[in-house]
Amino acid sequence: MPWVVFIHGLGVDKGIWSEPDEARILGGLLPLRSIVRTGGRLRSLYHDLAEAGFTTLAFSLKRPVGGIEEALPVLAAFLDMARAEKTAGVVLVGHSRGGLIARKYLERRDPLIKGFVSIASPHGGTTLARWAAIARPAAALVRIIQTGGAIQTGGTAGSGDGKKSGVGVAVKRIIAFIESPAVAELLPDSPFFAGLKPPATRCPSVSIGGTDPRLFSFMGIGFPKLLEKVVPGWVLPEEIRSGLGDGLVSAGSSVYPYGREHLNFPINHAETVFDGTARAELVKRIVSFF
User: Is the same domain home to 166 and 278?
Assistant: First the structure.
């Protein structure tokens, strides 16, 4: 059976595919589950396709906040492994930035690739990447505080410093994320998008996007959907407007321009990986690739 290689996005690792109930976001501060409204145990295409007989593989990038070019050799190594095993072919499945990593690889001519699935990937970039620039001054302040010892990164068992240590590590990860080139690459006018080329590997492909921007809820109030009630709609970017975005990526940007088909679902950015209806539709498309 063909192989399916899963590529994760920013801020997570391979656990979003293989062990989503244990996966965490925001530098480990919150469980992935906190932004997913799907009931019961979380399942992804990784599990669906394994049950259908495909060989499913997922990997974590060593430098999750590195540039997309840095991720390509890791993906290429997995594909070389598939070639050595003489597999019937490989389907690339990428969520969020993972879809851009796959798309960049498709600029190479590789007959091994038999399909591409793009899940909520910002093919036109995301304007929310500009928020990182706004957050940089705050990140710099936190770094100064850390240096001064206000946030401890060590501690002994039973001293209570372990909690401080965990917070300190999480803060460091968030700062690294905000300051990373990976975020800057996602701006619509970034050099990365300016340099994208049409795929040299032509294969069946499908993309999906979400149209519900609710990521978090507190006391029944959804965020960032709450902003629609206090800010004029024309001011808000499409990424966080109901019917137009999934909270991080706009539905328009999630369209893979060389795809055979695009589907939108009323779900948020994380739920595009786990929603049962979306998964069922993608399984049907992937099976049809062969």
Answer: no
